[in-house]
Specification:
The protein is α+β, with helices and mostly antiparallel strands and about 150 residues long. The protein is built from two helices and eight strands.
Length: about 150
């Protein structure tokens, strides 16, 4: 009987630990719903998630409505709104990290105009610093075609 009780406690403890770990992982992730960039007639939609580990970030994206078999950029910008194009600003990065690392962050679309993937950056900016900032999708020419705000 004592063994049965201990097993229940162990299972309960493991369940609580798993819940705690799951919460901790979610607490360091931000998500943006991507829609057309303000003032454009593009059809880009999708989601971008940014997961933080100290000063490193992993950016995961799932986009559609892009030009088929094409590429472009995906960057966090200084702006905190996608409502007006002039409020989105330029790339958001820490000067201490050695320059604008966003220049190398790109997506590549398939024959149906979808792009799905991830990349890792050493940004120097953590979860809290990125919360509320705009994620911008650029086409191959550099034009801004999609935008979303990083939220919890």
């Amino acid at each position: 009987m004592m063994i049965s009780c201990n097993r229940k406690m162990t299972i309960l403890g493991a369940g609580l630990l798993a819940s705690t770990l799951s919460f901790a992982v979610n607490a360091h992730s931000l998500h943006a719903k991507i829609d057309a960039y303000p003032g454009t007639k593009t059809t880009v939609t999708g989601h971008v998630s940014v997961h933080f580990d100290k000063k490193d970030m992993t950016v995961k994206y799932n986009l559609k409505g892009l030009k088929p078999v094409n590429d472009g950029g995906l960057h966090i910008h200084v702006g905190t709104s996608c409502k007006k194009a002039d409020k989105v600003g330029g790339h958001y990065f820490s000067p201490k990290s050695g320059g604008d690392y966003w220049k190398s962050a790109q997506w590549v679309s398939d024959s149906k105009g979808r792009a799905k993937g991830s990349f890792r950056l050493i940004s120097g900016l953590d979860y809290k610093a990125n919360l509320g900032h705009a994620v911008v999708i650029h086409d191959a020419s550099g034009a801004r075609i999609g935008c979303g705000i990083l939220e919890k």
